[in-house]
């Protein structure tokens, strides 16, 4: 018996024209406006219909026949606007293209969006790990923006030093030496 092989696409729905969310007189950080939650009216059935319509528009009946067999939304999270989509291994590029050409959500929303495929994986486990990693990153960046931290590079160096249990001056000196080497070679 032949095993059907799939690919898993991790896709984020981004809202480039999002308005500022105001709560208690404060506006949300810009990272949270761009990665806004998806309206509850968009569900997995509409997302699949959106993908199928895009494939049909781009590739016609041939594309629908090749992709329709295993196309399924495995994971959908409206709060993070993230989806994991299963599709055939041989034709995942068709699904990716259909997602790329989506410009707005279906009826009744009609909100302008950009769908970005952030990972293509052969296993669902790796796709799930990517979703978790990205969600943690968005939360971390939002907290940093909320706290007003501007120098994230320095913070990451300090965290790396603390993990390695080395004196801070040694690592910072290494970073300075690397910058000097790059400027001399340029």
TrEMBL record:
InterPro entries: Pop5/Rpp14/Rnp2-like (IPR002759), RNase_P/MRP_POP5 (IPR016819), Rnp2-like_sf (IPR038085). Residues 162-186 are annotated as: Disordered. It comes from the Eukaryota. One of its GO terms (biological process) is maturation of 5.8S rRNA. It catalyses: Endonucleolytic cleavage of RNA, removing 5'-extranucleotides from tRNA precursor. Its EC number is 3.1.26.5. It is an enzyme of class 3 (hydrolase). Keywords: Hydrolase, Nucleus, tRNA processing. Residues 162-171 have a biased composition (Basic and acidic residues). GO terms for cellular component: multimeric ribonuclease P complex; nucleolus; ribonuclease MRP complex. Component of ribonuclease P, a protein complex that generates mature tRNA molecules by cleaving their 5'-ends. Also a component of RNase MRP, which cleaves pre-rRNA sequences. Belongs to the eukaryotic/archaeal RNase P protein component 2 family. This is Ribonuclease P/MRP protein subunit POP5. It comes from Pseudopithomyces chartarum.
């Amino acid at each position: 018996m032949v095993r059907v092989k799939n690919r898993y696409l991790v896709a984020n729905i981004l809202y480039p024209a999002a308005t500022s969310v105001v709560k208690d007189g404060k506006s949300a950080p810009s990272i949270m406006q761009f990665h806004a939650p998806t309206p509850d009216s968009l569900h997995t059935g509409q997302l699949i219909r959106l993908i199928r319509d895009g494939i049909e528009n781009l590739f016609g009946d041939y594309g629908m026949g090749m992709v329709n067999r295993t196309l399924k939304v495995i994971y959908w999270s409206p709060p993070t606007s993230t989806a994991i989509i299963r599709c055939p291994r041989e034709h995942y590029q068709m699904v990716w293209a259909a997602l790329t050409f989506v410009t707005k959500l279906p009826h009744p929303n009609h909100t302008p969006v950009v769908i970005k495929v952030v990972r293509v994986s052969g296993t669902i486990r790796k796709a799930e790990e990517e979703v978790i990693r990205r969600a943690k990153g968005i939360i971390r960046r939002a907290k940093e923006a909320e706290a007003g931290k501007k120098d994230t590079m320095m913070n990451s160096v300090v965290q790396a030093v603390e993990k390695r249990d080395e004196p801070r001056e040694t690592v910072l000196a290494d970073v300075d030496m690397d910058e000097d080497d790059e400027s001399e070679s340029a």
